[in-house]
TrEMBL record:
InterPro entries (UniProt xref): DEAD/DEAH_box_helicase_dom, Helicase_ATP-bd, P-loop_NTPase, RNA-helicase_DEAD-box_CS, RNA_helicase_DEAD_Q_motif
Reactions it catalyzes: ATP + H2O = ADP + phosphate + H(+)
UniProt xrefs under Pfam families: DEAD
Domain Helicase ATP-binding intervals: 147-322
Family: Belongs to the DEAD box helicase family.
Record EC number: 3.6.4.13
Protein's name in the database: RNA helicase
Enzyme class: hydrolase
UniProt region (Disordered), positions on chain: 1-96
Source organism superkingdom: Eukaryota
Residues spanned by motif Q motif: 116-144
Organism name: Frankliniella fusca
Length: 454
């Protein structure tokens, strides 16, 4: 009897151990599912996200603000501007006439004269070589006045419509700035940091940095959400002089210690108004806290709302404000815009008819802007099914409207099939066509009901 009692006791002990083991397995699976949900929730789908921070979910909450003592910081040079004799000797009335003709207005002290040609910029040969290779003839107004300010080491705010050439306005001075700093050592972060609101814009900026930094062998990387972290982390660990980043993903790398901003002396906030609209102000503040206070800061924006003004007043020192054109978002006057008021169900047939008219001229090229990626795919499939495949037509969402100046060949007819929430959005979607794409014609298909509601 005793033997059977002992055997029953052993069976009961074994059953209890198995029960405890199954309970542990269930808890592990539950924790794993919870972590997976958190990872999915925290993913940044290309809009600069990530950077949720600690338990409170505040962006950058794990980042500690350094106690900067400027007296102990390694000095660095940021004034490289040597005026060309033609620029410095130009009569003041000619300078004012140029500024008036180009709608340039300025606020700030001791603003240098604008340069009227690339030769007047006094950029080093390795920069001018790439400019000539790109085939540019003359600087745009924002470049003509912005380069002397940026090369002087001054903080500045540049306000101009999309497509005005802003990217080169800060990229070329960044290249000069970097080449006048000590080389990066192991463990150093970037010398120049460019913040952008979206992956698409960040990638466009990187393309410009690639093209114009080629001769000087300046390394860069583009970090943004919605893409694997490992390749971006490897670039940061190897060391790059320029980091182009969306705010959330950069916060992630700063919190994990994959990079730092101790060497950063040149900061650019591109499309600052859009970054604030998208809710990135907390991330921007956390990032700027990690950069030495005597840095050079350049802020670029298409508009000048109160929120952007407040940010400039807080983080820029003795800055120059450069404005080209209106302070409000407006249409590009190089483009004739036609609005075709129609019902929603008419849009596809009108689009088909319009494209046939446009493509009757062999030299014409067109871009069609559509609301969503799903609709882009649908329209593309219909075009491929019904068309011959010979006409150069690009169908895209409105993110492609930014940075179109990078296209080499002119687009004569962009078509905006997007119903805008605001009138400003209609004109803003194609403003990038004004620079590099020449004069053109824009056409919109807008539902009658939505138009009457505005």
């Amino acid at each position: 009897m005793g033997r059977y009692d002992r055997r029953g006791s052993r069976d009961r002990d074994r059953d209890r151990r198995r029960s405890r083991s199954r309970s542990r397995d269930r808890r592990r699976r539950s924790r794993s599912r919870s972590r997976s949900r958190d990872r999915y929730r925290d993913r940044d789908f290309g809009r600069g996200g990530g950077g949720r921070g600690g338990r409170g979910g505040q962006p950058g909450s794990n980042l500690r603000k350094p106690r900067w003592d400027t007296s102990r910081l390694e000095p660095f040079k940021k004034d490289f501007y040597v005026p060309h004799p033609d620029t410095s000797s130009r009569p003041q009335h000619e300078v004012e006439e140029y500024r008036k003709a180009k709608e340039i207005t300025l606020k700030g002290r001791n603003v240098p004269n604008p340069i009227l040609s690339f030769e007047e910029s006094n950029f080093p040969d390795y920069v001018l070589r790439e400019v000539r290779r790109a085939g540019f003839k003359d600087p745009t107004p924002i470049q003509a006045q912005g380069w002397p300010i940026a090369l002087s080491g001054r903080d500045m705010v540049g306000i101009a419509m999309t497509g005005s050439g802003k990217t080169l306005s800060y990229t070329l001075p960044a290249i000069v700035h970097i080449n006048n700093q000590p080389r990066l050592q192991r463990g150093d972060g970037p010398i120049a940091l460019i913040l952008a609101p979206t992956r698409e814009l960040a990638q466009q900026i990187q393309q410009v940095a690639d093209d114009f930094g080629r001769s000087s062998q300046i390394r860069n990387t583009c970090i943004f959400g919605g893409a694997p972290k490992a390749p971006q982390a490897r670039d940061l660990e190897r060391g790059v002089e320029i980091v182009i980043a969306t705010p959330g993903r950069l916060i992630d790398f700063l919190e994990s210690g994959r990079t730092n901003l101790r060497r950063c002396t040149y900061l650019v906030l591109d499309e600052a108004d859009r970054m604030l609209d998208m809710g990135f102000e907390p991330q921007i503040r956390k990032i700027i806290d990690q950069i030495r206070p005597d840095r050079q800061t350049l802020m670029w924006s298409a508009t000048w709302p109160k929120e952007v003004r407040n940010l400039a007043e807080e983080f820029l020192r003795d800055y120059t404000q450069l404005n080209v054109g209106s302070l409000q978002l407006s249409a590009n006057h190089n483009i004739l815009q036609i609005v075709d008021v129609c019902q929603e169900y008419e849009k596809e047939s009108k689009l088909s008819t319009l494209l046939k008219e446009i493509m009757a001229e062999k030299e014409n090229k067109s871009i069609v802007f559509i609301e969503t990626k799903r609709r882009v795919d649908e329209i593309t499939r219909k075009m491929k099914r019904d068309g011959s495949g010979k006409s150069p037509i690009l169908v895209a969402t409105d993110v492609a409207a930014r940075g179109l100046e990078a296209l080499a060949r002119p687009v004569t007819m962009p078509i905006n099939g997007i119903v805008a929430e605001r009138c400003a959005s209609l004109s803003g979607g194609i403003m990038g066509l004004g620079q590099g794409l020449g004069q053109g014609l824009a056409k919109y298909g807008v539902g009658m009901a939505q138009l009457l509601e505005q």
